């Protein structure tokens, strides 16, 4: 979207509607302040013009971009301050990984997720997907099978296939409200000797499911029995909503710890995707950790950019209060969406997410083909959403809506859907 042309002033209350001009009168709840009474102001419309935003770059004029998973919020001020402070020294030479990096992660996992990880289990990783790809290369060979459980984050499949691996689907079961794993289907797929790995999305994107302990234990036990490795992508794990607790996969049992590799990082939680190359892995089993770290070392992917280190340490040592506020705000946005679709009979059902800022919308009752559905949202409602079909079997008839934005934009988007 060419928003720059709309930005004349951000100082007045009208500034918000200038940044998202097509939102019009619904923008009354927006603000242009960074903080209010010293608290973070998630109602602020942040100007992303000229920042090379992928999310906004793909949107046509007048469309609200609600697709790729970054948020319309500033990152936590503690993170920006730490980055600015470091830049102010003008020192940008080769940098080693300080102990503080590992300590901040151990502390975060222990306090946030009740998982007392050992420092030696943790290693820097160059982004979650890049690092999962390295796990494909380390533990599987071309032609081996990797299980995914669709509808699921499309990059798991995309890169496995690019690397010549065979991706097999164990689609999730859906009762119209919540998703669960198909253990009978899994049993059949695990019986095949070519199956070497399963990629778990924990919590699950796009369905928003926070997997419970019993499910994770059963999954671990079945895969352990067959010698199948589990890659657990936990990038959305810090963003659970009230009443739900993220359970790190490797923490559920000895079996899980012996076959699991956890990949996660602060980029979704603190809106740092643009920093890039910012993640870490936790691998309790030395027999998996050693070959994996050798692979990162052999490909020189174990050297973090300076900004990644500074941001991670600041996020995990100082970011918790900001995150608490963010989660409360996201909860309010989700309530807005759920209440709206319950009150308006539009043939769209919102599946209440248990974590993160992505709402999975079941539009099958609208009776449209996927192409018509995308056309409806893009051209009639003027919203750029993620196409459910991209997430594999079970995604047809669905779209994913990113509600990580000021509430006034969520309200405007809902009103556009009703009017369309
Ligand atoms: C489940 C999941 N994993 C990984 C990523 C991307 O992580 P990274 O940018 O660290 O590769 C995303 C981004 O949306 C995601 O939703």
Describe this structure in words.
With 420 residues, the chain is an alpha/beta fold. The chain folds into 2 domains: 4-76 and 320-419, Aspartate Aminotransferase, domain 1; 89-318, Type I PLP-dependent aspartate aminotransferase-like (Major domain) (Aspartate Aminotransferase, domain 2, 3-Layer(aba) Sandwich). Helices cover 38% and strands 14% of the residues. It contains 14 helices and 17 strands. It has helices at residues 15-19, 54-57, 77-88, 99-113, 128-139, 155-162, 183-190, 213-226, 254-259, 286-298, 306-318, 320-343, 370-380, 407-419; strands at 35-36, 39-40, 64-65, 122-125, 145-148, 166-169, 173-174, 179-180, 195-201, 229-233, 260-264, 279-282, 349-351, 358-362, 383-384, 386-387, 398-402. Strands 4-12-11-10-9-5-6 form a 7-stranded mixed sheet, sandwiched between helices. Strands 13-14-17-16 form a 4-stranded antiparallel sheet, with helices on one face. Helix 5 (128-139) packs across helix 10. The radius of gyration is 21 Å and the shape is globular. Residues 1-15 and 21-26 have low confidence and may be disordered. Bound molecules: pyridoxal-5'-phosphate (PLP). Pyridoxal-5'-phosphate (PLP) binds next to helix 5. Residues 69, 127-129, 153, 201, 205, 233, 235, 265, 267, 273, 279 line the site of pyridoxal-5'-phosphate.
